[in-house]
Automatic annotation (TrEMBL), chains A, B:
The keyword Metal-binding applies. It comes from Succinivibrio dextrinosolvens. Its EC number is 2.7.4.16. The gene is thiL. Keywords: ATP-binding, Kinase, Magnesium, Metal-binding, Nucleotide-binding, Thiamine biosynthesis, Transferase. Pathway: Cofactor biosynthesis; thiamine diphosphate biosynthesis; thiamine diphosphate from thiamine phosphate: step 1/1. PANTHER family: THIAMINE-MONOPHOSPHATE KINASE. This is Thiamine-monophosphate kinase. GO terms for molecular function: ATP binding; magnesium ion binding; thiamine-phosphate kinase activity.
Length: 331, 331
């Protein structure tokens, strides 16, 4: 391929939506941005690697979309309004078909959020996408992991578990193949995998909702490593415990449709990860305002438990449940 | 390896130097930073991949140092004062020896610059280090590629060509092996390579000098892709040409010591890249102030030519030279 790094960047990654406050975008040593004086800048960075965060041969469109989504999800978890982003991409070769589709997926979300790409780099290497995203949040208004209070309600947006189910399907372990056969789903295996994998990557961003939410909640996290793992970060930072009711976990319609075993459903919701939904705590006196927000932003919200003194307790129909499995970790 | 991502980050990448203006560092969904109202934030991101930007088995200390250096070099090229940085690292496995040395190299530069690490992530994958660095620059004071003016002098800090010579040595092509034999250096090949490679990675940052320089220069770039390639960015952005005198190129003492052929020396200086020195233009009436700066920051500075109307012309002892080779590009 004769296309150079400079041509690549120009062709696929130069957008004209420079945006207010961006004094200098792509094309110099650095980008330059201004921050309004009453705001702080929220900064996050996340990497997606082939074979680790996504399967080989994943559609480049989905990949472009999700690489940005996981980053704006971190902004949402602080209540920050997305402002701009940078992209570093390692490619085995300068495949223009790949880049065109990747760029389309990336910009489908960036355009929706009115988010300019202000810089980045491309390099030769095994497929890896590293994005840094920047958001604005009024000083002192960020939702932080350390702010959960005893008796706060614990809430989740959307549903949990579908992305993890897709990953299990994709690995085609003996366990999941046996299960699918038992459920008489083995003939539809591929189409179920494709459906769940695609839906699990095209996750809706919660940015607009989260920005409004930060007025009534001061503690949130996005679920990347699984509900238990991410809730534990909140509990540890806030020095509190929690009670979670498993029957209240928001599950995708597909779990019922495919008739997945109940304990496997719970497992996917609790430990699966990759959901990029918001987990937040809030004084329950705000529940009316929360319902109004959820309605006006069309975001499903469900209460799954309560912040308590002590440790984390999981209950199902009132009975305590012992789940010892470790959350997903990258090593 | 039983060490998890969270433990890794905590053990090797949590520093206490949170720094003024950093409201929230590592440990939440985002970092939060404040920007003084008279400043803009300069943002840059750069990736170093094994086998592309550095040889396999490169010392992790050098790698940690250089991964940060290439980023602060972009800040210096705008005249921005380094403020903080994030780190995304892909590792084949959680090798603690590697991480300890890498972290030591990284912090040797970060500490010198008083630069807090505010966030990042680690993931499994082929060795790749992606850093984003942030700097403060007074509004309107950034040195930009588009600001070169006719009759400006063209200046270089430090020397050019040594990192590129090290890369040539490292590839051990038939060409370089023959050359080293001809120069009777084949017995010392390894020690010469090690010396040049290490020196070419432990490049001194130009941040403090650049920050002061921005008062007398308004146009700079750092040399990553080679003098010709990077000068061309300035000329294109500023819509000007230039005359460069090859006999004025600042060459490392090693070139004379090893008695490298003159045209090979020129080639390394012009097209080698990886120098991370500053190339800047300035009205020559400021040369006295420049000399004072260079002296007080102990930074060698050399004038290599002049901005002209027209195209880029290279001269050696007054005679025009035609160098057609393309600059280093990543694809």
């Amino acid at each position: 391929m004769a296309i150079s790094e400079f041509e690549l960047i120009k062709k696929y990654f130069t957008s004209n939506d420079r945006g207010e406050g961006i004094s200098l975008g792509i094309g110099d040593d650095c980008a330059l941005i201004s921050i309004p004086s009453e705001y702080e800048l929220a900064i996050t960075t996340d990497t997606q690697n082939e074979g680790i965060h996504f399967f080989k041969n994943t559609s480049p469109f989905l990949l472009g979309y999700k690489s940005l989504l996981v980053n704006v999800s971190d902004l949402a978890a602080m209540g920050a309004k997305p402002y701009c982003f940078t992209l570093s991409i390692n490619l085995p070769d300068a495949d223009e078909n790949f880049l065109e589709e990747f760029s389309r997926g990336l910009y489908s979300l960036a355009s929706k959020l009115n988010l300019p790409l202000i810089g980045g780099n491309t390099s030769k290497g095994p497929l890896s996408i590293s994005i840094s995203a920047y958001g604005l949040i009024k000083k002192g208004c960020a939702m932080k992991r350390a702010n959960a209070q005893e008796n706060d309600g614990i809430y989740i947006t959307g549903t949990l578990g579908l992305p993890a189910f897709a990953v299990d399907l994709g690995y085609r372990s003996a366990h999941i193949c046996r299960l699918m056969e038992k459920l008489s789903l083995n003939k539809e295996y591929d189409s179920i995998f494709n459906h769940c994998y695609e839906k699990g990557m095209l996750i809706e961003d919660r940015c607009a909702f989260a920005s409004a939410l930060s007025e009534i909640s001061s503690c949130a996290i996005d679920i990347s490593d699984g509900l238990i793992g991410d809730l534990s970060h909140i509990l540890k930072s806030s020095k509190v415990g929690a009670e979670i009711n498993l029957e209240d976990l928001p599950k995708p319609e597909e779990f019922r449709e495919y008739n997945l075993p109940d304990d496997y459903q719970d497992h996917l919701c609790l430990y699966g990860g990759g959901d990029y939904e918001l987990l937040f705590t809030m004084n329950e006196s705000f529940e009316n305002r929360l319902n109004t927000l959820a309605h006006s932003f069309n975001v499903p919200v469900k209460r799954i438990g309560t912040i308590k003194n002590g440790t984390l307790e999981l209950r199902k129909h009132g009975k305590m449940v012992d789940y010892r499995e470790k959350p997903f970790e990258h090593f």
